[in-house]
Specification:
- The protein is an alpha+beta fold.
- It has a single domain, classed as Anthranilate synthase (4-Layer Sandwich), CATH 3.60.120.
- It has helices at residues 20-23, 59-73, 141-156, 179-189, 232-244, 246-264, 301-308, 319-330, 382-400; strands spanning 2-4, 14-17, 30-34, 41-46, 50-54, 82-86, 97-101, 104-109, 112-115, 133-136, 162-172, 194-198, 201-205, 208-213, 216-227, 267-278, 282-293, 316-317, 340-345, 350-354, 358-361, 367-376.
- Strands 2, 3, 4, 8, 9, 10, 11, 12, 13, 18, 21 and 22 form a 12-stranded antiparallel beta sheet that branches.
- The longest helix has 19 residues, at 246-264.
- It binds ligand ISC.
- Belongs to the isochorismate synthase family.
- Its EC number is 5.4.4.2.
Length: 406
């Protein structure tokens, strides 16, 4: 399904020197942001010039085709014509995978917001502090523990090697959630992550599914976790234990292979890792993958995302068995959680994160469904996985309720 019109992109002409937190308060923009301080860069979008939605196994190809069709009719510099995209985790999801070309694109860098047109809304005033009421989601804590125990049994029986199991929470607000404030807090607290807001999906993911820039491919694969507590000695010990943990290294190896193998079919890639990566609330094992698309390749970043999704960081191994098992054991629709989220331009370049550490804001803005999951392998324990998911809810929880951080 598509709506919208075509037109041409005018040269950049409006520049505003203002904090990122002010730029995101101009209406409720589409957001893709990463970096700290002077290195913070963001792509922002206002309004809707074109929207395409898709479902099912062909959702990647459908959105890529619809965007190409739109771009072909638009008289624009391919690198200036940008779409924000969120795709569902599962082909069977009842939710839509959505691609939005904004009316106005903004680029925030070096303290300056640059837009092609000087038509932005004035920044809104922040909402009053409001504590959200966090309620159980569709999979209770006890049900999650049971699901992990059952997954370990199935792994021991040889049915599957790894499966990633998630649970959800419902954060309910008396007034509509102040999404710009949530975005600004997520970005400030998680500068190494990719902060996003696309079609009500908001979060800060530390995991880059795939990026493509003029033939150069990048990915950051994460799997294997330990909590960051703020105590330097305990944190150093946790990082060392994570780096040496056979359970986490096994969990990570599945994820790294699930990205490197498909990318190697279309690009010359090398992988560096795993290294221990510190996020504000959690350590991860991380492998950075980089390379160059094979000569003559016409693949864009959306097609690359479709090629690697779902990786074993969010699904498991073997992929098809793990996908069926997680659907059976979780028993809920993940929607866009753990699906690709990011942006693409009309040249096919762009960046996609895995939608982790995120929530889906309800259409009335009064609730946010939060998700977190963990990779289960033979040596996993239900209580440890439950604790790990609790740790992974923290970035969203802290951004929704502005509590002091250590
Ligand atoms: C599935 C999630 O995390 C993935 C990414 C990093 C580490 C993970 C882990 O250690 O289990 C997961 O594979 C999530 O945050 O919901």
């Amino acid at each position: 399904m598509t709506t919208g019109r075509t037109g041409s992109t005018r040269p950049a002409r409006a520049r505003r020197r203002e904090p990122f937190a002010t730029s995101v308060r101009r209406g409720v923009p589409l957001v893709w942001a990463t970096g700290a301080g002077d290195d913070l860069t963001a792509l922002l979008g206002w309004g809707e010039r074109f929207r395409a939605t898709a479902a099912g196994p062909d959702r990647f190809a459908t959105l890529a085709r619809e965007f190409r069709r739109f771009a072909a009719a638009a008289d624009a510099d391919p690198h200036e014509l940008v779409a924000f995209v969120t795709l569902t985790f599962a082909a069977e999801s009842a939710e839509a995978s959505t691609l939005i070309v904004p009316e106005v694109v903004g680029r925030w860098a070096g303290g300056v917001l640059t837009t092609a047109e000087d038509v932005l809304p004035e920044p809104s005033a922040p909402a009053e502090f409001e504590e959200l009421d966090v309620r159980p989601g569709q999979l209770s804590r006890e049900a999650y523990r049971r699901a992990v125990a059952e997954a370990v049994r199935r792994i021991s029986g040889g049915e599957v090697a790894k499966v990633v199991l998630a649970r959800d929470l419902e954060a309910v607000a008396p007034d509509p959630v102040d999404v710009p404030a949530v975005v600004a807090r997520l970005q400030e607290a998680n500068p190494e992550a990719w902060t996003f807001h696309v079609d009500g999906l908001v979060g800060a993911s530390p995991e880059l599914l795939v990026a493509l820039h003029e033939g150069r491919v990048r990915s950051r694969v994460l799997a294997g976790s330990a909590p960051v507590t703020g105590d330097p000695d305990a944190d150093a010990a946790a990082a060392a234990a994570l780096a040496a943990s056979p359970k986490d290294r096994a969990e990570h190896a599945f994820a790294a292979r699930s990205v490197v193998d498909p990318l190697a079919q279309v690009a010359d890639v090398t992988a560096a890792g795993p290294a221990v990566l510190r996020q504000p609330r959690i350590w991860h094992l991380a492998t950075d993958v980089s390379g160059t698309l094979h000569p003559g390749s016409t693949l864009g970043v959306l097609e690359l995302a479709g090629l690697v999704h779902p990786t074993a960081a969010v699904c498991g191994a073997p992929t098809d068995v793990a996908a069926a098992l997680l659907a059976e054991l979780e028993g809920f629709d993940r929607g866009r959680y753990a699906g690709p989220v990011g942006w693409v331009d009309a040249a096919g370049d762009g960046e996609f994160a895995l939608a982790l550490r995120c929530g889906q804001v309800a259409p009335d803005g009064r609730s946010v469904r939060l998700f977190a999951g963990g990779g289960v392998v033979a040596a996993s324990s239900p209580s440890a996985e439950l604790a790990e998911t609790a740790q992974k809810f923290l970035p969203m929880y802290e951004a929704l309720s502005p509590v002091a951080r250590p």
